[in-house]
Amino acid sequence: MVASARVRDAGGSAGSTLDVRHVSHAFALEGAPLPVLEDVSFTVEPGQFVALLGPSGCGKSTLLRLVAGLEPPSSGGLVTDGRPIAGPHPSRVVVFQDPTLFPWRTVRANVALGLEAQGLLKTQASRIGEALDLVGLSGFENAYPHQLSGGMAQRVALARALVNEPSLLILDEPLGKLDSLTRLAMQAELVQLWQRARFTALLVTHDVEEALILAERVIVFSERPARIKADIRFDRPYPRHRDDPALIQARREILALLGVPD
Amino acid sequence: MSAVGDDHTGSLTMTAARRPSWRLDTIALIAGLGWIAVGVFTLQWPEEGDFARTPEFGNAAIGFGALLALLSVAAGWSPVIATRLKAVSRWLVVLAVWFGVWEAVTAKYALLPMPFFPPPQAILEVFLDDWRRLGESVWRSFALLGGGYLVGAAVGFITGVAIGWSRAVGYWVHPLLRFVGPLPATAWLPLAFFLFPSSWSASTFLIALATGFPVTVLTWSGIAGVSKAYYDVARTLGASERFLILKVAIPAAMPHVFVGLFMGLGGSFAVLVVAEMLGVKAGLGWYLQWAQGWASYANMYAALAVMALSCSGLITLLFKLRDRLLSWQRGLVQW
Ligand SMILES: Nc1ncnc2c1ncn2[C@@H]1O[C@H](COP(=O)(O)OP(=O)(O)OP(=O)(O)O)[C@@H](O)[C@H]1O
Ligand SMILES: [Mg+2]
């Protein structure tokens, strides 16, 4: 684990490729199978920022869990940088829908979690302060999670992921709990961060506008079981603006795909 | 939560005590006068019987009462004394009444049958004359309890973690626990005294057993109840199995572990006393038994008082330890 992390550091933290090949997944719900993903295939290039959109409960979080390696798919395969995903790896970090901070750890210790787990705490401790700076939480190092607001907790969760310098950052509605102002600020931060570190990003969001502010590519899923309904490239320069006519046009098209009249 | 509340009322009483430039704590003064009255009554009233330590008790009561009266006046200047005194003053009044009545119905009017209900000065006599044996008993009890409790808590904790974590361990240990665990540890007593080389090792084993069962069960349920989301987070960050146990499962289960430690401590007291009465021939349990053999009831009451004080002291100690280790919980649950 330590060795692989060093290799990654030495090779620079360029984004990894992700290849999702005919992935189907089903849960067993009260004995009956509940199909959640159906023949989902797409390829993400290194450093690409991809947003996943779809109706609630369609299977987006499930797909992210498969990419993270937390569960194997029922059928099909997931490959990153030419190697099949067989389990979790710190180069693929998830920011979950819930912040799930460890209540018995201070903010600082929560952010340190990844470094500690990989045995990098002694050599890389300075990254913790940088990550906290990045999400605007320096000064709260010694607070406990119950002393934070929902938005602050979500930012700690983001810092906890970023501190690992992932090559694939998996974001499950990471800004969903933030107030609208913080949300806008964090969107800008996320773009800057991604442009600097060039990781590959996979973002699930409910907010079409957010997807278009952040991502170069938007994949729209159908109702459960999720199938790819549309795969849209959106090549506009950053930083993007909400009143860009191209963005407004794309937004209208995507909302129509999702069945919401604009 | 409660700490914040205390601070708040604390500062309120402080300002209340300061604003009128000088104020006496009336209730504490009443308590002080009450204790002086108890002392004077003890010294002056004729006794039904012959008690060696009557003057000591009377003088102690007067001294304590005088000190209280002084403090009740000093409370006007010192907010610290004022808050401390206020917390206990009503209890001190009730205790003065209690000791006065006790003194009256025993030593002064002999309304209660004599050897069974000794007056306060008879119990003071035990402390003053027999403190060596009593102290030795306390020490022996602590040594026995400490050894057994630490062994039981450690074994219980490790077993609980193992059952909670590993299906294979759970398969073998769980039925054993279900079958043997509910048996009161004292039921093993005759067998243990027979199987172990010494009564001391047998008692240590029994105390460990009484402690170990609740600690095991609660540690196990604590580990089993840890949210899967914590493991997911840790695993995506590169956590090994060892890390998941030591840094995720165990800290998350600690609140449960402490419930087990409290229950184990209560159970271990019971086993300790029984073991000392039946086999060990030392410690507070033995002291009780010995006092009963000599029909010295004053010694029994004295030993009971010491025992109550020791047990509540140990519980308080465990509370303090929990408050230290689980301070993160303070904002999450009502203590
Ligand atoms: N562990 C599980 N066992 C059984 N069913 C599950 C499990 N996890 C998810 N599901 C089901 O799979 C479906 C998809 O869930 P998922 O969390 O992936 O949805 P989602 O697209 O992320 O929704 P949302 O946008 O509301 O977060 C849901 O119907 C859910 O009930
Ligand atoms: Mg979801």
From TrEMBL, chain A:
Would the keyword Nucleotide-binding be found if you checked this record's keyword annotation?
yes
Question: What broad taxonomic lineage does this protein's source fall under?
Answer: Bacteria, Pseudomonadati, Pseudomonadota, Alphaproteobacteria, Hyphomicrobiales
Name of the protein this chain belongs to = ABC transporter ATP-binding protein
Task: State the family named in the UniProt similarity comment for this chain.
Answer: Belongs to the ABC transporter superfamily.
Coiled-coil-forming residues are: none
What are the entry keywords? ATP-binding, Cell membrane, Membrane, Nucleotide-binding, Translocase, Transport
Organism expressing this protein natively: Chelatococcus reniformis
A Pfam family this chain is assigned to: ABC_tran
Keyword check for Transport, yes or no. yes
TrEMBL record, chain B:
Q: Which Pfam families match?
A: BPD_transp_1
Q: What is its main location?
A: membrane
- What keywords are assigned to this protein? Cell membrane, Membrane, Transmembrane, Transmembrane helix, Transport
Give residue ranges for domain ABC transmembrane type-1.
138-319
Where does it reside? Cell membrane
Q: Which domain of life is it from?
A: Bacteria
A cellular component term (GO) from this record?
plasma membrane
Q: Which residues cross the membrane?
A: 27-45, 57-80, 92-111, 142-164, 176-196, 202-223, 244-274, 294-319
Task: Set out the biological process GO terms recorded for this chain's protein.
Answer: transmembrane transport
**Membrane topology type, per the record?**
Multi-pass membrane protein
* Family of this protein: Belongs to the binding-protein-dependent transport system permease family.
Q: What is this protein called?
A: ABC transporter permease
What species was this sequence derived from?
Chelatococcus reniformis
